Write the structure tokens for this entry.
Amino acid sequence: MAKRVFEIAKDLGVSSKAIVAKCRQEGISENVVKNHMSPISAGLDATIREWFTDTGDAPPNEPPAGESPVSHATDAPKHRGPLFGFAVDRLTPEAFKALDLHVTDELVNAIKHSLLVGRHLLFAGPPGTGKTEIAKAIPRLLFGPDSFQVETANASWPAYDVVGGPTLEHETVVFKPGVFTRAVERSLKADGAHWLILDEMNRCDIDRALGGAFTALQDFVLTIGDYESPIIIPQAFRVIATMNSADRNALFPMSVALRRRFATIDFSFSLSHEDEVRALTAEMEAFVKRSGHSSPDVLLDKTHDIIQRIVSIADGIRSAAVSPDGLVIPELQLGFSATRDLSRFAAVSYMLSDTPSDSEILDGGMRMLWLPQWDSLLGAELQQLETALVAMGSDLPNMLSALTAMRRAYSSSV
């Protein structure tokens, strides 16, 4: 049960007035702490005890006994805001690479800046660009394992599931926290070192689902109706959301007000041809090693040339993602996971047979792994993709036939 100001004051041996004044000094709203009868959440209770443990029983703006008041007047002010709580020097391309994630300096710098200015993060981009894995890696690198929880949004999410609400237990109405509130509670226990990752956030009506958490994303105070006293969210707490920009069906829009609470980072593909080849080669070395193949060196030699072809084909398709009139086709913005999966398909094909040609492997692998994500393309977009593959001189007869069939099926349906 939440304690009131006067009870905490009694525990600490200070006045209720001193606690209220200190809360006001730290920017805590009068709606949260008004007077000696105000209920105090567990998180704010711990913070208040920390304040007055550090300064004895001296009221705010007065030094402890025996200390010169001049020292407080001349010292630089303490920053208690979102600049602290992050060891952002741990976020480097090399650190992500150790987790088998390939990121650029520009992406890492964008993440660092966004965190330090107090924003939550929104990773937007097509599937396969590493949004979710990089989102999980950030708190892992900052705080260690078990420092985040992943929740996948769905179209039926109500505010009850996200924030929480009343429920009946043993004939008593109690508050049941939702995914956001549970993450905040864990963050309070971990001094901010527990974050929430909302995967595929635009698959739900997030403005409606956030409910009382909408304002909390900005002012770090979570107020949930009359069921609980306000919760002071740790300044180091962050939400990292991912948004699929390619799936244009069954998605919900986000309001401008909600977007303003996030720093949006574009996850369009950014590796150079050479960097992608190097990353795929390293990935294949690890993959073949895990396979237990009897002749790993021979297998890796076979995959070397086909990796070059895979990246060249992917580059051509990415170039076709921008139409002549400047419109972007997100489905054609292939990410690293797409080329990685096709490279693995090639390696497995070599393991199972000594005879397949590279063209046969690519033809079969692309139809199996890449073609399904293009079934929502419009007729002109399919034509643009087909033209790009033909222009590259790729020997992919079955793939091209499948694209032609999809384009004709689209034409007959409109």
